[in-house]
Amino acid sequence: MISIIIPLYNKEQTIYKTLFSVLNQTSRNFEIIIVDDGSTDKSVHIIKSNFHDSRIRLIMQQNKGVSSARNNGVKNAKGEWIVFLDADDIWLPNYIEVMYNAINSNPQADMIGCASYVVDYFKNTIYTNRMIDSCFGKIQRIDFFTNPDIMSHIGATCIKKESFLAAGGFNESIKNNEDILLMGKISMNHNYYYVGKMLHVYYINVPGQVTRDVSKKNNMYKDVLKVINLLNEDALNKKDCTAIKLLKFRFWDYFLRIIKENNYYMARYYTEKVNSGMFSRKLLKLVSCKKNKLVTIIYIYIIKILWRINRYQSRSHVSKYDAYLRKNYNDIRTPSVNN
């Protein structure tokens, strides 16, 4: 059985649509565990007023963050497979059915993901889609570290429970990129399979999404570096050359953003805190100097060009099947909610 874990915090405007998309799956063999992380709005009331399905379990906890809520959900999960769906995202109706088919046809799999639509919540228009073109219409084992930014979103990924536990679950001290850390750790030790179908909808511009100020943005950058360092340690131990190369690129990708923002506090933080051995100290000292900004930007863009030459896709990648995928996207229409 698949256990669906939904962490919930103040999602009164979206939780109804999320649950509706789950309960209208073509396959009905699943349980839903909603972990409320101390919501102060009507989220819980909406669930209790509109959904009376015996497969739903609601767990309440004090506000400890999304990783804590997800880990708590796993502790209470009965299924051999788990999937984490955010309370403002949805699935297409056959997501669970396709996951079961993939699980049954690939018994050696430990983690199975699919492609996602990225949709503007208010306009209900597709911003982009994340499809690995070489996998379109197929199920195949691939290396997560060829580019995690276009791999499956955590909400589109089904994970074997024992593999999740072996990886230590979500790191509750990390508030950003915690999903990349978990999925990276699992894929480094287990088999990752990709389904070339668009079955998950990730919404942007959702009501209640936090706008980052400088302080929160810096915390995000620090978490990203922490994830890079932790995965790099694992990759070195495993001698995973693909992962090591990707993590170096990921470092430069975020470093470029920091430099463009003239955030030299974070530039120094990155050059001081990145794992020793990833780069030469002389190079790091050079790129963190403000007077070398132009040289640094050119250097990083050359790295990005080489990355693309090696056929690694960008975060903003749009599939060559884009027109077909857009044509086949239909929003899930939901009935009125009882407030």
UniProtKB/TrEMBL annotation:
Signal peptide: none annotated. It comes from the Bacteria. GO terms for molecular function: hexosyltransferase activity. Residues 3-150 form the Glycosyltransferase 2-like domain. InterPro entries: Glyco_trans_2-like, Nucleotide-diphossugar_trans. PANTHER family: GLYCOSYLTRANSFERASE (PTHR22916), UDP-GLCNAC:BETAGAL BETA-1,3-N-ACETYLGLUCOSAMINYLTRANSFERASE-LIKE PROTEIN 1 (PTHR22916:SF3). This is Glycosyltransferase family 2 protein. It comes from Candidatus Cryptobacteroides avicola.
